Model the fold of this input.
Amino acid sequence: MDCAGEKTMAESAGFALLTAAFALLLFLALISPAGAVPSYARQTGQECIACHVSFPELTPYGRYFKLTGYSIGKPFVTQEGFNYMPMAAMGQVSITNTQNNYETDPTTGQSSPVTQRNDGLVFCCASLFFSTKINDYAGTFIQWTYNNLETSADGTLGGHGQMDNTDIRAAYKYSSPGAAEPDWIVGATLNNNPTVQDVWNSTPAWGFPYTIAPLANLPSAATQLNGTLAQQVAGMGVYAFWQKTLYGEISLYRTADGAFSILREGLPTRIQGGVANLKGYNPYWRFAYSHEWGPNSIMFGTYGLMVDVYPDNLNTSTPTDRYKDFALDAQYQYITDPHTFTAQLNYIYEKQNYNASYPITVSTGAGYGAGPTPANPSDNLRQFLGKATYYYNRQYGGTIAYFSTTGSSDSGLYGADAGGNPNTPNSNGFIFELDYLPIQNVRLMFQYTAYNKFNGASNNYDGNGRNAHDNNTAFFNLWFAF
Amino acid sequence: MKRKHVALAAMFLSGVLTAASAQDNAAAIQKAAEEKAVNLCSTCHGPRGISTSPEFPILAAQRKGYLEAQINAFRHQTRGEKDAHDFMWGIAGNLDEAIIGGIATYYASQPPAPGRTTDPALVATGKELFDKGVPERGIPACQVCHGPDATGRDDFPRLAGQHAKYIVKQLNYIQSLVRSAPVMHGIVKDLTPPEMQAVAAYVQSK
Done:
């Protein structure tokens, strides 16, 4: 790979190993009777569209498959022998174009690129999955990802492998005598990303956009629920789904250290700011109402998280900052042959109480470690995303989405403009996407992200004359799984 | 004499126990099949086999022999239209003969789905076709095999109450030979799309 920066021997060996694993998996997938489809398809004998509107968005049956512990179908090993390859692989090849990829330093007058590999063909990234039924009551979704374009602190790119989304669960179905459907599905999950266990695609972990340009310049503010804790924490929860109507889940999240450290394997845990470090066990909740009629299904829900975070992940002797996230979400799906229409809405409100970081910033002018340096004792951050998707024949698709981030102005977190006014985290814009799936596990896509506001302003948001729309991103991508 | 009586009694007892054991075994198989229907099939085919989505056929009150034949066709991959391939090959591949029989028994014994009329004029046209066929074009009446009320006959399937969209889709699959149905190929080969819509609307209304 022609990555910028020197690659170490270990990185080269890692990439070679990954390539060999990919080749082996491709071979095994091709000789498998289930064809070139991932491991759940081999497990169930069903095609991707049984569970996915288009990956990763789940159909009602896909939600049932996940809620019942990924346990439909057969285990990969039985008394009769080895049934199928329980592993799968995924990769993406793309070209990204940033509208204005150059920024001029006002003091030196020198121009430099904002993102790397702009307009170049890149392979990024590759994932391996161990996703399979264990027995009639349990199954796994375990993803490991190799990012060959990982950006180091000094801006160089290099290869890096780490644990990605993981959800290991067990479930039990209970039907009263004479029942027509399961009255209860109850289960337990161990996962490493709040909302990765959720079955509706309105929540962040499996929400739109399902993939983005690997090196794009992105808005900086995000709520804790929106990926900030992803792959850094261990969550243990129990859930119940009553008569396919009411869903409830309670989980507790903690730092993924000690016995749970496998859930964040590969992350820079010994670097300041490398991972989040939570104090104790932190509650997450999820409640939803679901209804299906004809080819339609709808869900209205709420979920949230309250976490106490050590500002310096390497120092647990300090007080903690508290983040309280409350979210509302909804999903509608109309699934027929050949027309499919789906829509999701998601709104997250986050209250940030800087009980640790604000006092230290006021008294010393700096935060704890790489932690935040707020100018206010508390702030709020609000994120909204709404998207609508149409697919014809599950093959030709189009999506339009609107996203928005708004929040308190805080010069400590977001800087200030030339007049000394504190900046906001505000960003918003649209995402347009066109998709073509020649076969169900291969997607050709064109995604265009248009910013109206970026990190607080539409124009000159960084004080160097850069405007929000300079970050508009065109992304051509080939995404495949086998 | 006494010894003969003892032997006869032992044989009788053994017969009773064997019959009871077979009965227990059959009951256990039926229970397992119904659990499969309740916990798995119902996800797409609806509670007691009455699906709400027209993409998935209603199974309630379907003929037992027809159900068995179709599940076996999925299992042996001899019914191969896209939906069968994408959804049912995998599901049926994990079932054995006994469970298939139990599932068919379960759905055959469920109360039928109520009829649903969307377009009375279309239903009337469909009734004419269903009851009388189109003799001048050599299309026989559907009711000859599917019964005067479309409830099926022997192993000919029940059509009454079935989703019209599903009926039209299957007629197209059979007409284009994507789905093998030897008796039906000759009957539907000249059926036009409006005729398919009409007859489907009629049987859905029953």
The radius of gyration of chain A is 23 Å.
